[in-house]
UniProtKB/TrEMBL annotation:
The keyword Transmembrane helix applies. This is DUF6644 domain-containing protein. Pfam families: DUF6644 (PF20349). InterPro entries: DUF6644. Residues 49-177 form the DUF6644 domain. The keyword Glycosyltransferase does not apply.
Amino acid sequence: MSLHLSEAMAYLQYQLGAEVDSAGRAVADTSWSTQLQSSEHLWMLLEGAHVLTLMLFAGTILFVDMRLLGLVLRKVPVSAVADTVLPYTVAGFAIMVLTGSALFFANPLEYYHNPVFRVKAVFLVAAALNIFIFHWRVQADREKWDARDRPPTAARVSAGISIVLWIAVIVTGRYAAYDWFRCGQTTGVIAELAQCTEFETTLVHAEQELAV
């Protein structure tokens, strides 16, 4: 199953949108992924927008979490704080996802086999799950504690977990951009976690399919 995913990432990176020669092989360095990666100005625009909207999204989430912890605006109802920042949170999230997806698309095979990126994905899923649980269970009786200085324990625990997880997402996302843990630069357990043997096999096969 993982090999099929690796091959799918290689297809995105080297073949999708590529020019085709007379033998039906994709011409090297002409795929949409490669063109995006080599487009200096567009890449910088995407990366800058991603970082800025991540700050907007995480910042508004942090503000609500701090209110839930009773650290700021203790006299303002939780609902008022959340409803005020919600449009900015949604806008930041939407642009962050779009730009993040584009950045991933520029180098999908290496990101897929980057162990730090995989850890980031786990933190992202955990953070999303925490948000779902908060809105589905913890917030169900918010009208009872909306105006309290300190919301109930469950709300504060959820806020604390949220802060930790989003910090983890930001930190791992930043380190995923470096090549310290990428296949070819690492060995041992980290290489096993990254499935680097599979990466090399997929890379050799992909290069054989290209018309250079």
